[in-house]
Amino acid sequence: MSPSKYWRFKTLAALVGLVGLVSIGLVACGDDETSIPVARTAPTQVAPTPIAAPQGLGQAPKAAAPAGGTSVIPKAPKATGVQSVGGRTTTAPTGPKPTISRFQPPTNAMYFPDPNAKLGGRLQMGCSTDLAHSDIIQSGSTSNVFPPFAWNANLLRFSIIDSVTVVPDLAESWEFSDDRKTLTLRLRPGLKYHDGTAFDTKDVYATYDRIINPPKGVASLRKAQFEVVESMEIVDPLTFKFHMSEPKGLMLGMLAMGWNVISSDEFLKEHDYNLRRVDNQPGVGPFKFRTHEQGEIWELDRFDGYWQQPLPYVDGIDCYEFSGQAAGPETTALITGQLDMAVSIAADVGVEILNGERPGLIHSYSVSPFTNGLFFNIAKGAPFDDVRVRYAIHLAINRQQNIEAISRMSSFILGTYIVSNSPYAPTYEELLTWPGYRPDKTEDLAEAKRLMAEAGYPDGFKTRYLSGTGTTNSITSAVYQDNLKDLGIEVEIDLVEGVQYFEEVREGKFHMAKGGVGYTIDDPEDALVTIAHPDAPSNYSRYSNPEVTGLLRELSGAFGFDERKRIGDEILVILEREQPIAMFAYNSRHFPYWDYVHGFPFIGANLYSTARWDSIWLDRPH
User: Fold this and answer.
1) Which pLDDT tens digit goes with each residue over 47-63?
2) What are 468's strand-pairing partners?
3) In a domain? residue 244
4) Cα 502 off chain centre by
5) Number of H helices, E strands in the chain
6) Which of 119, 160, 290, 107 minimizes the C-alpha distance to 591?
7) Under 8 Å CB-to-CB from 537, ≥6 apart: which residues?
8) Does any domain span residue 380?
9) For residues 570 and 528, what is the distance between their CA atoms, to the nearest angstrom?
10) Would 457 be classed as within a structural domain?
11) Residues of the chain with confidence (pLDDT) below 70
């Protein structure tokens, strides 16, 4: 990097105080994100004890029909059949099943070269943090998205147009067998890695063998997703087969997920199958590594051998790191024109761009697929094994108040059990009419008090609330505490440090706990199994419902957007009735860019799969 460029970005920290951004919080997620590690054992169950059935919970008003489909907002739960929750028998609140807005995937989800694109120029962008290490399959942090995804590629890819449709990448076609237990992929011929090594099926085998059967010292974070794979077969240099024990509707999405990039068999052998300390990795993606100055900059150059010509349009990417700093420096670099786009900016500036108050800047954002809400330890018994109590708390929580309280530090978007901004989720407008999520709490509080009285707690009760430390956690905890006073629930807040917090949640040493569980694919199966399957190690509420378990099994073998969404909607309705977690919101990440940046991909909830930047082209003003 030239001395002038180095000085230009190093002086940004000094500029921050001048533009008043020092106190603005970071909008990002990384290795320090408050996620709860996966537990090692399945939850225990408690003996069933019948309880009285709840009565009707009122009805939400109907929302306006969004574009692309009709919508019927769910009635709040009413009492019907018996089911098992956390091992305790109870009559669940139910109601008419809602029809949530239907998403129609575009007819053409493939991106074709833009005939108006201008070639050349280097994309100047921010990288919000330095990498803890360089091995993507061993990472679960967004710090490994920028910039490594730009030099890598997958067998398949999520469309940059709608973020859920799977399209070809290194594999040009695929086919399932009649029983859908064998997936055959045909690779593109003639492809090479950045170092000139030929790409073929031996690389596919080496890559997925490392994921499914990681060697000693390699932590394969997504190994469990491929448990259905019984064997792999190299048919010839361009034909590869996955043999599965059962049909897996999410299999294509798993291959398209950005973390599962293809690595060279020769390169893996050279580095003993562990790439944690290897910056210069030859990929098959649109950009190739030039240099990395620790804590300063990644420089990537256009790869002329990329399979989809004339992409990438730009000559390269300069990705500047803002390690260990608040979002202020990157925000300053963007608004002063030193960056073309940013990946982590001050929350209030992001809102200003969204509202059109920053001329020339365009707003895009990603919603982190990381559930944020209140866990209830159902297995501990009363009071949280009673669905009426959980639903009453769901009604009493003022989500808008909580989002506003932390808005200077973090950007959150209202959401339920499927990540906001996903075509599988209810729209924001719909959610604003649902009980518990609507901003007017008058009806919700009245119904919550009635349910508490019916459950035998007319004056509330005392309980312990567990949360990690930190300013955002402290504020959120205080808002929950204040909200629940309306039900007579006296909350003792217990803020504990990270290691202790994780251990207590894993071991079930809580009554209520703030936290969340992350997932990686914009799909209802990936989202809902983590929190609703009785054997899921991340099911910290110890929730169990045979109907939901059966639907999750059905969802696992379902193919096609419409069918997967239909089953996902059924599960979502049940979870809304039973509230194993009182969902709060999802962290959103602003991706602003100047209006001369074209071809920006739709990110949605698929940040981990769309940050390749091959479709971007520049038309900078002279």
Assistant:
1) 222 223 233 222 232 23
2) 496
3) no
4) 20
5) 17, 24
6) 160
7) 38, 39, 40, 41, 42
8) yes
9) 11
10) yes
11) 1-110, 128-132, 140-144, 323-326, 622
